[in-house]
Design brief:
It is built from 14 helices and 33 strands. The chain has 763 residues and is an alpha+beta fold. An eight-stranded mixed β-sheet has the order 7-6-11-4-3-14-17-16. Strands 21, 22, 23, 24, 25, 26 and 27 form a seven-stranded mixed β-sheet that branches. A hairpin with a 2-residue loop joins strand 19 and strand 20. The longest helix is centred in the last third of the chain and has 20 residues. This is VIT domain-containing protein.
Length: 763
C-alpha cells in the first residue's frame, strides 16, 4: 500500500529549514565525555486503531570507569508496556516484571555485585524512569521496551501520539526532610513526594542535538478506508506504507500523526483466554435530534510562566472561542490563574448571563492575559467547581480547563477534586508540544468529559471545532452496557463525533452480543445491540489491563489504599507495567567491581517554550548546562531579575535560588539544620518535664512559644511553617495535655526524630 503525506506548511518548513547547529545530529561533548544517551528509536506499527511500538534507547559509556545512567522519559499515557530486554554486545537479557520494591532490590544488588542491569519504573501514567547500570568503559547498551495501545479516534480521524520529552513541571508544597528519592532538580514535597523523580535537568536552548532520533511508523488500515495522513510537529517522508522522520529532528516535542479513516461502524471483539476473555466494544454516536440544554459554564485559563509564547496566544484564542459558543440561555464565569486567581472585574464573582455585553467583557479580559507565575491549579479548580455545585437539574454544569497541565501534584488534585465534581462535566484543553496528556486525560475522565490536545497553532482551528462540540451536552447520557465488567469503569455518556469505547473482562463463555442503553437529550430511551466477533488479537487483553490499572491507580490516589493489592496482582498477571511494579533485567556476567559513575541524562527544553523574559514576573523553570553536576561544567546561576514561582527549584548545584516578588532576587531561605538541633534539645526538655503539674507545664509551653517565636520570626521559607503554626497554637492556649503532645509531635518531626521512614515514593 502506498499513501501520501500532506505537505508541510510554510511555518513548518521555516522551522526545519537551514543548516544551523541547533538542528544538527550528534552527541553532546563534555569535559568528561559524551552524555550517555546517544540514540532514541521508535518503530511503530498501526493496525486499524491499534498501535504497537518498540522503543529502543541506546547508551554509550565514553568514560574510563563503569557508568550508571538515569533517563526520565515519557510514553503514551494509554499505552501498555508489556515487555523489555537489555542488549550488550552479543548478550541479550529478557526483563522480568516484579513488584516494584523487589525489582529495585534486585537491581541494586546486581549493581553492587558488578553485574549489568537495567530497570524501568512508572512515575506517572506518562512519565517513566530508566536506569542502566554497570556499563563498562567504551561499551554500548540498548534497552528495548514493547508497548501496545489504542489510537484516539474522533470525528473521522485517528491520532497516533508518541511523546518524546518530559516538560518541566510546577511543584507545590513544603520540602520534605531527608534525602531526595530521585536525582532531579526539584525538592520532594509533602504534596509531590517524588518530585525529584519527575524533574530531569534540562538542556539550555542553543546546544547541539545530543540524541539521534529515529521514528518509523508502518500503517495498515486493516480494512478501513485511509485518507490523508498528516504529521503535526515533525518533518516526515513516506515510502510505501511507512512514514519516517527525516534525520536531524530533535527530541523536544511530541510526535503526532493523524490518519483520516472512513467507513467505521459499531463493533464488539472478544478475545478468549484461560480465565474467560477480554472484550472491546465500540459504538458510534447517533446523530443528535434535539437542541442542547442551557449550560452553566466555568472557563479556567492557565496563565502561568510555562504558557508563554505561542501557547499563551493559542490559549487566549481557544478561551475566546469557547466564550463565543455560549448563548443567551447560558450562564458563565471566566477565571484566569497562575499562583493568583483573577476574574474580569466587570463580571463579578459568580455566574452571569451570557449576554453580548458580558461575553464582550470576558473576551476583552482574555485578550490582555499574559503568562507569569507558577501553576497553582488546585485553588482555581476548587473555585470553579464550587460555582457549579448548585447547578439546577435543568441546566448542564460544565467546566473547561485550558492549560499545558505541567504540574507535579496530579494525584493530590485528582484526590481532592473527586468529592466536589458531582454532576459537573470537566473538559480539558491541553496546549503544548509536550503536553501533560496523562494528567489532563485522567482529570477529564473523572469529570465525564473530554480531553482535546493542541500541539501547534496550525492545529488550533481544527481542535477548536472539536472542543466546541464537546462543550455541548452529550447525545446520550446514563449509559449502561450489558453484560458489564467491573474494571475499568465504563464511560457514562456518548459525545457527538466520539465513539463509545468500552473494555472489559468476562469469566465464562463469550457473550453473543452487547447491548448499550441510555437516554437522549429529550429524555427518550435509546438502545443499540452489537453482535460479537471472535478474534485472537492480544492487544485487546493488554489494553484492558492498562485501562484497568489506570482506574485502580486513580482510586488509590483518591485514598482507596485497599486497591494496592489488586493493582499489583493485575499488573503481574497480565504482564503490564504500573506504578507498583517494574521491569528489571539482570545479566549474570560480572563486568565491574561495583563502583559506578552516576549520570542523569538531561532532556531537551520543549519546543515553543520561550527563553525567559526577565522583565516580567514568571516562573524560573529549571534549566541546566548540558553537562550535569559531576560532568564538567556546572549548571548556571539563575539570572538576576528572574523570579521563581513558589516552590520552583533550580538544580541543587546551581547558583542563588530566587523567590517570587517584583522581579528581583530575594535572599535564599535560611538553612534549617541549626534549628533542627535546637528542636531536638526542646524535645529532650519536654520529655524530661512531662511529669510536672499541669500549671507548670503550661508555663513551660508559654516559654517554649516565646523562644520558638523569636527563632522563626526572622527566618524565611516554608520549612519553618510547622514551627510557626505550633507557636500560634501554644499562644492560643487550650488543654495542656493536648498542647504538650502536639509540641512533642511537631518538634520531633521537625528534628527528624519521628522514627518512621519516609513512605515509598510510589505510594
Amino acid at each position: 500500500m502506498t499513501f501520501s503525506v500532506a505537505p508541510m506548511k510554510a511555518p513548518e518548513l521555516d522551522r526545519v529549514g537551514g543548516t544551523s547547529e541547533d538542528a544538527g545530529v550528534g552527541a553532546l561533548h563534555t569535559e568528561r565525555g559524551n552524555l550517555p544517551l546517544e540514540r532514541l528509536d521508535v518503530r511503530a506499527t498501526i493496525t486499524g486503531l491499534v498501535g504497537r511500538v518498540v522503543l529502543t534507547t541506546g547508551f554509550v559509556n565514553s568514560h574510563d570507569t563503569a557508568l550508571e545512567a538515569t533517563y526520565v522519559f515519557p510514553l503514551p499515557d494509554r499505552a501498555a508496556v508489556i515487555g523489555m530486554k537489555m542488549t550488550a554486545g552479543d548478550r541479550t537479557v529478557e526483563a522480568e516484571l516484579q513488584e516494584r520494591g523487589a525489582a529495585r532490590e534486585a537491581y541494586d544488588e546486581a549493581i553492587a555485585a558488578g553485574r549489568r542491569a537495567s530497570i524501568v519504573e512508572e512515575e506517572r501514567p506518562d512519565v517513566f524512569t530508566m536506569r542502566v547500570g554497570n556499563i563498562p568503559a567504551g561499551e554500548r547498551v540498548t534497552v528495548e521496551l514493547s508497548l501496545v495501545g489504542p489510537l484516539v479516534f474522533e470525528d473521522g480521524a485517528a491520532t497516533f501520539r508518541f511523546p518524546l520529552v518530559v516538560a518541566p513541571r510546577y511543584v507545590p508544597g513544603t520540602p520534605l526532610p531527608g534525602p531526595s528519592v530521585g536525582d532531579g532538580y526539584a525538592d520532594d514535597t509533602d504534596v509531590v513526594p517524588d518530585a525529584s523523580r519527575i524533574t530531569p535537568p534540562v538542556l539550555l536552548p542553543g546546544f547541539p542535538n545530543p540524541v539521534r532520533l529515529g521514528i518509523g511508523v508502518r500503517i495498515d488500515p486493516a480494512g478501513l478506508e485511509l485518507g490523508e495522513v498528516r504529521s503535526s510537529l515533525h518533518t516526515v517522508v513516506a515510502e510505501g506504507d511507512t512514514v519516517t522522520v527525516v534525520p536531524g529532528e530533535r527530541v523536544d516535542r511530541d510526535f503526532v500523526l493523524r490518519l483520516e479513516y472512513a467507513g467505521n461502524s459499531s463493533a464488539a471483539v472478544c478475545v478468549p483466554d484461560d480465565d474467560g476473555g477480554t472484550y472491546q466494544l465500540t459504538v458510534l454516536p447517533p446523530d443528535p435530534a434535539t437542541p442542547v440544554r442551557p449550560r452553566d459554564v466555568v472557563l479556567l485559563l492557565d496563565r502561568s510562566g510555562s504558557m508563554s509564547g505561542w501557547k499563551m496566544v493559542a490559549a487566549r484564542r481557544a478561551a475566546a472561542r469557547i466564550v463565543d459558543t455560549l448563548t443567551a440561555d447560558d450562564t458563565f464565569a471566566v477565571i484566569t490563574f497562575d499562583d493568583r486567581v483573577e476574574r474580569p472585574a466587570e463580571l463579578g464573582t459568580g455566574l452571569v448571563a451570557a449576554t453580548d455585553r458580558h461575553r464582550f467583557r470576558a473576551v476583552e479580559h482574555l485578550a490582555g492575559v499574559q503568562a507569569r507565575g507558577g501553576t497553582e491549579l488546585f485553588e482555581p479548580l476548587r473555585q470553579g467547581l464550587g460555582l457549579l455545585a448548585d447547578a439546577s437539574s435543568e441546566r448542564d454544569p460544565v467546566l473547561v480547563l485550558v492549560t499545558d497541565g505541567q504540574v507535579g501534584n496530579e494525584d493530590q488534585i485528582l484526590r481532592d477534586m473527586a468529592p466536589v465534581i458531582n454532576r459537573t462535566r470537566v473538559h480539558a484543553v491541553g496546549i503544548d508540544t509536550a503536553v501533560n496528556a496523562g494528567f489532563l486525560g485522567r482529570l477529564a475522565a473523572r469529570g465525564a468529559g473530554r480531553c482535546e490536545l493542541v500541539e501547534s497553532e496550525d492545529r488550533l482551528d481544527e481542535a477548536m471545532t472539536h472542543i466546541q462540540r464537546r462543550i455541548g451536552a452529550p447525545v446520550i447520557t446514563d449509559v449502561v452496557v450489558t453484560p458489564s465488567s467491573s474494571l475499568p469503569k465504563p464511560p457514562s455518556a456518548i459525545y457527538p463525533g466520539v465513539p463509545l469505547v468500552v473494555l472489559g473482562r468476562y469469566t465464562a463463555q463469550a457473550p453473543e452480543s452487547f447491548t448499550v442503553r441510555g437516554r437522549t437529550r429529550d429524555g427518550a430511551d435509546w438502545q443499540e445491540t452489537v453482535a460479537v466477533q471472535h478474534h485472537t488479537e492480544p492487544a485487546v487483553r493488554a489494553q484492558w489491563a492498562r485501562a484497568a490499572l489506570r482506574d485502580l491507580e486513580d482510586r488509590y490516589a483518591s485514598g482507596e489504599r485497599a486497591v494496592e493489592a489488586p493493582i499489583v496482582e493485575t499488573s503481574l498477571r497480565f504482564g503490564v507495567l504500573c506504578r507498583f511494579t517494574a521491569f528489571v533485567a539482570v545479566d549474570e556476567r560480572v563486568v565491574s567491581d561495583g563502583t559506578v559513575h552516576r549520570v542523569v541524562q538531561p532532556v531537551e527544553q520543549p519546543a515553543g517554550w520561550e527563553t525567559p523574559r526577565f522583565a516580567a514576573p514568571m516562573p524560573a523553570f529549571p534549566v541546566a548546562m548540558a553537562a550535569p553536576a559531576g560532568f564538567g561544567a556546572p549548571p548556571p546561576a539563575a539570572p538576576a531579575g528572574f523570579p521563581a514561582a513558589p516552590q520552583a527549584r533550580l538544580l541543587r548545584a546551581a547558583g542563588p535560588k530566587l523567590v517570587p516578588g517584583g522581579g528581583g532576587a530575594a535572599p535564599v531561605p535560611d538553612d534549617p539544620a541549626e534549628l533542627r538541633e535546637i528542636a531536638a534539645l526542646e524535645v529532650q526538655r519536654l520529655e524530661k518535664d512531662a511529669g510536672r503539674p499541669g500549671w507548670e507545664r503550661r508555663e513551660l509551653l508559654a516559654d517554649l512559644a516565646s523562644r520558638l517565636g523569636m527563632l522563626v520570626g526572622s527566618r524565611q521559607g516554608s520549612a519553618y511553617e510547622p514551627l510557626r503554626r505550633l507557636v500560634a497554637e501554644l499562644t492560643a492556649a487550650g488543654d495542656v495535655d493536648q498542647l504538650w503532645a502536639r509540641a512533642l509531635q511537631v518538634l520531633r518531626e521537625f528534628a527528624g526524630q519521628t522514627g518512621e521512614r519516609r513512605r515509598r515514593f510510589w505510594r
